[in-house]
Specification:
It comes from Pseudoteredinibacter isoporae. Keywords: Membrane, Transmembrane, Transmembrane helix. This is Energy transducer TonB. The chain is mainly alpha-helical and 177 residues long. Helix 1 runs antiparallel to helix 4. The radius of gyration is 31 Å and the shape is rod-shaped. The N and C termini lie far apart (65 Å).
């Protein structure tokens, strides 16, 4: 009769142990899935941060290019009457633009690291359009017409829009994920 009293205690102990094992395994599985999900979120956050940094770098180049193009167009309109102070300002802005082109190259590299070949190509074309503008429009060149200057500047703006369209689509997809 005494052996019968131990059986319910043994059965209860086994049930408690199995419950603890099941709870432990379930907790481990849930925590592991949470870690994987958290890693994916952090990876997405890093990509978003990198795209935001690229956007800021391109925005800085665009700002300096806008100053450069405005000063060059102004020099074209004024011709020989253009003040020397503005000429010095253009020289500074030109040097700043050349310096900022390094950020554009760095942004292209980051895009390639992210596997964004189409976006990198678009950014490279944007930089090439700016370089072409600088080659064609410069202080002292009077044989170019103003509508040609405007057309060249519009090509730069169009390429910038194409780049930002690609960037915006990728950015939106990452935020939606």
């Amino acid at each position: 009769m005494e052996s019968l009293n131990y059986w319910p205690m043994l059965e209860t102990s086994i049930n408690i142990a199995l419950g603890a094992i099941i709870a432990g395994v379930s907790t481990w599985v849930v925590m592991r899935q949470k870690d994987v999900y958290q890693d994916k979120l952090e990876s997405g956050d890093r990509r978003v941060d990198m795209l935001e940094a690229i956007s800021a770098d391109v925005g800085q180049v665009n700002h300096i290019f806008a100053k450069y193009s405005a000063l060059v167009i102004e020099s074209y309109r004024f011709g020989e009457q253009w003040p020397s102070g503005r000429r010095e300002e253009l020289s500074q802005v030109n040097a700043e633009l050349v310096k900022e082109f390094k950020k554009l190259a760095d942004a292209e590299t980051r895009l390639l690291m992210l596997g964004e070949k189409l976006m990198e190509r678009s950014l490279r074309l944007y930089g090439a359009r700016i370089a072409h503008f600088r080659k064609e429009v410069f202080v002292g060149r009077q044989d170019i017409k103003e509508n040609e200057i405007v057309s060249l500047k519009q090509e730069v703006a169009t390429q910038r829009e194409k780049f930002y369209d690609l960037l915006s689509k990728r950015y939106d997809r990452l935020l939606a994920a």
